[in-house]
Amino acid sequence: MTKYLIEGGHPLHGTIEISGAKNAAVAIIPAALLVDGVCRIENVPQISDVTLILQILRELGADIKTVNRTTVDVDCSHIRNRQVPYELARKIRASYYLVGALLGRFGWAEVPLPGGCNLGGRPIDQHIKGFVAMGAEVDVRNGLIYAQVPGRGCLAGGQVYLDIVSVGATMNIMLAAALAEGMTVIENAAKEPHIVDLANFLNSMGCRVKGAGTDVIRIFGRDYLHGANYTVIPDQIETGTLMIAAAATHGDVELTGCIPTHMEALSAKLLEMGARVTESDDTLRVRGTLCGYRGVNIKTQVYPGFPTDLQQPMSALLCTAVGTSTVVENIFETRFRHLAEMERMGARVRIYEQTAVIEGVPQLHGAAVEATDLRAGAALVIAGLAARGTTEISQIQFIERGYEDLVGKLRAVGADIQMVDVPVEAAENEAQIS
Ligand code: UD1
């Protein structure tokens, strides 16, 4: 079993290069299924979710070549299998994008229900509503999503109003609509940066997507899309996580290759707390303070509001802020499990349904904790970096799903963090004792 071992209390100092965006890459790679030709995708993050989505495409018959560390050529000219393997699909949330892409290209898809982090109920009814509006028949049974276009085999443009703003549904409907006949309109669409990124990729393949980044998106379907070269945007959540880590360790960190305008909700909160945040072009610099951070109130919202994916890392910082902070989680039901772990480190937290009330303590202390999901894991890393003593984080495979070389990047700016292999037997004994 692999764990992270963190010796806390070292301020982070230096420069970190931001990797490509996970949530953009896991939609852009399946989008290559829409093309009978080669798509070169650059700035692909090296994370396990990307490895999995590439592996799924390979199983379907795609030819994938690694050009360099962050660039892949994806050629979906010879797809021979449209049944997505259960064992792979169930491990990753983004496997739902295969429904939109396969349905759009072939008029038929059979995809296991997606996996990913357990954040409470994660329905896909809005995705299905979109496919149905374009003429598909969709059935969910025995853990599989069956979608097909009866008759002529090609989706037709449709109009869909999302009852709830959903990132996944917006992007999935865009994928399906790119080869549909006529125009598809998505109303009440999500506006996250990765939605604009997917739209730009589809446009570079010859599609016409207008309005991405607003709440009405129009996709003018094409008969044919061509291969393209495309560079994935920098990761908004990795940037935010490292900004918070810089503040939590009272460090001074420059993040390069990021998009500061994507970070406004977080930058504003860090400034309100007393950190210094400055930006220029593609760089953000965060300087912490030793004078104590002020507690603040956070409400997660769809973009451009405070992102739910940064709620957990941010609450790690709030655990040592002066006074009381409240965190309202509006997007997912079960996204406070990291706080129970942080209580082991001395955090003082009360949870009332979707609200966490955090009473700041002067100092967290190291403890053995468990990552319960991807961003919970990131939050525990931040808590461990700021704590006094040693923190041991287990279940780090969740963290590796979404952060490229987190250990290497943090070590390069002065963190004392290492990945250690603990023999399974020792880990089991430990579990029995605790
Ligand atoms: C995506 C991201 C995830 C991020 C989340 C919110 C990927 C692979 N995952 O997840 O990292 O935390 O956006 O920014 O990109 N909902 C429905 N019906 C649906 C779809 C969603 O009720 O058909 C609800 C969800 O339960 C949730 C809310 O809508 O309460 C938002 O979910 P959504 O934006 O779809 O998140 P994901 O696409 O699952």
Structural overview:
- This protein has 15 helices and 23 strands.
- By secondary structure, it is an alpha+beta fold.
- The strands form 6 sheets. The chain has a 4-stranded mixed β-sheet with strand order 21-22-1-23, with helices on one face.
- α10 links the parallel β17 and β18.
- The longest helix is centred in the first third of the chain and has 13 residues.
- It starts with a strand and ends with a helix.
- The structure holds uridine-diphosphate-N-acetylglucosamine.
- Uridine-diphosphate-N-acetylglucosamine binds next to α1, α5, α6 and α10.
Percent of residues in helical segments?
25-40%
The secondary structure category is: alpha+beta
Number of helices: 15
Walk across the major sheet and give the strand order.
Answer: 21-22-1-23
Low-confidence stretches: none
**Mind summarizing the main beta sheet?**
4 strands, mixed
Cα-atom radius of gyration? 22 Å
Number of strand segments? 23
Bound molecules: uridine-diphosphate-N-acetylglucosamine
Assess the beta-strand content as a share of residues. Answer: 15-25%
**Mean pLDDT over all positions:** 94
The coarse silhouette is globular
Q: What is the distance, rounded to the nearest whole angstrom, between the alpha carbons of the first and last residues?
A: 17 Å
